[in-house]
Write a structure and sequence with these properties.
Aspartate Aminotransferase, domain 2, binds ligand T4K, three-stranded antiparallel β-sheet, 16 strands, Aspartate Aminotransferase, domain 1, seven-stranded mixed β-sheet, aminotransferase, globular, 2 domains, alpha/beta, transferase, 11 helices
């Protein structure tokens, strides 16, 4: 949790401050009819009509077979591991939000950190094999910033060693790869619909799965393990998405294409304006396979001041860029004692965590704001 979460969070209007992100919110009046339906039906949760509609609508929109909605992405990650009965050790990246590794600890699984590729900042497939032991049962990569992992290489290793693959796809809503959804890769893929994500349901998440049987197991697990009124088949959790969240998701889907398009425009503008700023490197090349969920820059040694000094300089100008993902997950107290958390094992992740700064990007960000941000960076 960030320092801003430690106190009660209040996010004033964007004309006072520019945040790393702001949730996309359709006009409030458009949401009222959805609320009226919920009030009339008195169905608030437990797989009601909006929950069912959103699962179907998301399958259609994303081009995947089955989706199980969750109250948030973290519960979805925890449940995905249980659904596949993952145990022992799981190979994962330290360059992510803490929830990725926490989901392993919640299942009594030992995370094994493997370094990232310095260009993509995703798990480096060429380093995975060396970390496999007889206890390894799965790989949990992250499509960091919505940029697809090297899914073919990861799948090849998983097939060779009989490992499961669960993608933390929290950043990867709507991301395509070679014309189809990147969420189709792996045994399961987990989305987050948190307020800070490209597609938000206030809080929310989902597991994407390839077959009806697995979806059924996940549906049991997210509802205490209930199969029917008198049958409980697993020590499941309460991970269900409520009707209000699902209804909001249905409304968001009507706006998502425009919201993604606006992110593309902002991404393009940043790249143009930053092209001549010495010492600043834009991470993702402009390509259609990302959803522009983040706009990370790398502050290189030839930039006039350090990354942290730039972060502070922007804050002084009321621009709240964020150092996602610093500190590395492997540096937090519950992980740093693990042999794989040693800095010498993770040089690329260490370097990235010391250089990265995520600049504001969200649909309501004005071009003028992007100019203002880049003016502050161009010292
Ligand atoms: N895996 C990955 C790879 C993830 O990135 C995440 C979540 C997860 C798993 C877990 O999914 P969930 O369980 O969250 O569904 C934020 C989010 O809380 C977190 O969801 C997200 N990743 C992570 C990368 O970022 P913080 O601590 O940086 O959030 P916060 O409150 O500082 O918000 C950042 C900015 O967003 C604020 O400065 C202003 C704006 N904001 C935020 C909220 C919550 C708003 O304008 N309105 C809001 O309601 O963690």
């Amino acid at each position: 949790m960030s320092a801003s979460n430690a106190v009660r969070a209040v996010y004033p209007a964007a004309d006072e401050r520019i945040y790393v992100t702001q949730p996309y919110l359709p006009p409030l009046r458009e949401f009222i009819p959805y609320l009226e339906k919920i009030w009339n039906s008195k169905t608030l949760t437990n797989g009601g009509p909006f929950h069912q509609q959103l699962e179907k609508a998301l399958c259609d929109y994303l081009g995947v077979e089955h989706i199980a909605l969750f109250a948030n992405g973290t519960l979805a990650l925890v449940t995905a591991l249980q659904a596949l009965r993952v145990t022992g050790e799981v190979i994962t990246t330290p360059y992510t939000f803490v929830a990725t590794a926490h989901s392993l600890l919640w299942n009594g699984i030992k995370p094994v950190f493997v370094d990232i590729d310095p260009d993509t900042l995703n798990l480096d497939p060429s380093k995975i094999e060396a970390a496999i032991t007889p206890q390894t049962t799965a790989i949990m990569p992250v499509h960091c910033y919505g940029r697809p992992c090297n899914v073919e290489a990861i799948q090849k290793i998983a097939d060779n060693y009989n490992l499961k693959v669960i993608y933390d796809a929290a950043h990867a809503f709507g991301v395509q790869r070679d014309g189809s959804s990147v969420l189709r890769w792996g045994d399961l893929a987990v989305l987050s619909f948190h307020a800070t994500k490209v597609f938000n349901t206030f809080e929310g998440g989902a597991i994407v799965c390839p077959d009806a049987r697995t979806k059924q197991r996940i549906d049991h697990l997210k509802n205490f393990g209930f199969v029917d009124e008198v049958t409980v088949v697993a020590p499941g959790i309460n991970g269900k998405m409520s009707e209000v969240n699902a209804a909001f998701g249905m409304l968001q889907l009507q706006h998502i294409d425009r919201a993604l398009e606006r992110r593309k425009e902002i991404d393009r503008l940043y790249r143009t304006l930053l092209a001549d700023v010495k010492g600043v490197r834009c991470l993702n090349p402009e390509e259609d396979s990302t959803n522009r969920s983040y706009f990370p820059i790398l502050v290189e040694p030839d930039y006039p001041i350090s990354r942290d000094a730039l972060y502070q300089h922007l804050r002084d100008e009321n621009i709240h860029a964020r150092r996602y993902f610093y500190p590395l997950v492997s540096d937090f107290p519950m992980y740093r004692g693990l042999p794989s958390a040693n800095a010498s094992n993770l040089p690329n992740a260490k370097a990235a965590a010391s250089k990265v700064l995520c600049l504001p990007i969200y649909p309501d960000l004005a071009d003028d704001d992007v100019h203002r941000i880049v003016n502050c960076i161009d010292l």
